[in-house]
């Protein structure tokens, strides 16, 4: 399995307020980014996997919605997470 319990806890510990803080916007965005990167690599090898492609598009939309929410709530938190994850080039 590509996403173990330890990996999830590590992501939330690094980007959230703690390992058990799974609800923060930063933690959710970091988890979505990890999953998006994994699905992108999968689609590079399996071009015709349309179910995975649909899942990827839905995940990108969810991440975008969370980033928009964070922009409206606290622009400094938004800028910090974008810089940390390298989302803008």
How would you summarize what this structure contains?
By secondary structure, the chain is mainly alpha-helical. It is built from 4 helices and no strands.
Topology of helices and strands:
Blueprint (H helix, E strand, L loop, with lengths): L4 H11 L9 H21 L4 H24 L1 H11 L4
Description:
With 89 residues, the chain is mainly alpha-helical. The chain is 75% helix and 0% strand. It contains 4 helices and no strands. It has helices at 5-15, 25-45, 50-73, 75-85. α1 packs across α2, α2 packs antiparallel against α3 and α3 packs antiparallel against α4 (75-85). The longest helix has 24 residues, at 50-73. The termini are far apart. 17% of the residues are buried. The model has no long low-confidence stretch (mean pLDDT 93).
Q: Helix segment count?
A: 4
For the sheet with most strands, the description reads:
none
Q: What's the pLDDT, averaged over the residues?
A: 93
- Helix fraction by DSSP (H/I, runs of at least 4): over 70%
* Number of DSSP strand runs: 0
State the separation between the terminal residues, measured CA to CA.
Answer: 30 Å
Overall geometry comes to globular
Provide the succession of SSEs: HHHH
Low-pLDDT segments: none
Strand content: under 5%
Radius of gyration: 14 Å
Return the structural class: mainly alpha
Keywords:
89 residues; mainly alpha; 4 helices
């Amino acid at each position: 399995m590509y996403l173990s319990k330890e990996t999830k806890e590590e992501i939330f510990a690094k980007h959230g307020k703690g390992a058990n803080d799974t609800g923060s916007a930063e933690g959710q965005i970091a988890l979505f980014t990890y999953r998006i990167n994994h699905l992108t690599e999968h689609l590079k090898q399996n071009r015709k996997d349309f179910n995975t492609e649909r899942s990827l598009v839905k995940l990108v939309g969810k991440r975008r919605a969370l980033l928009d929410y964070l922009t409206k709530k606290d622009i400094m938190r938004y800028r910090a997470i974008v810089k940390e994850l390298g989302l803008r080039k």
